[in-house]
Amino acid sequence: MENFFNFFSTLLFMKRPLFVSFSGTHCVGKSTLLKEIANKLKRKGYSVIEVEEYARKVPREFHGTLKGQQLMFEILKKELVKASTKDADIVLIDRSPIDIIYYILFFACAKQWTVEEIKSSVKFLKDTSELISKFDLLFYIDGVDAINIADDGFRFTDEHSRHAVDLIAKSFYVLARNLGFIKIKQKANAVAETANEIIDLIESKIRNKSKK
Question: pTM of this prediction?
Answer without folding.
Answer: 0.87
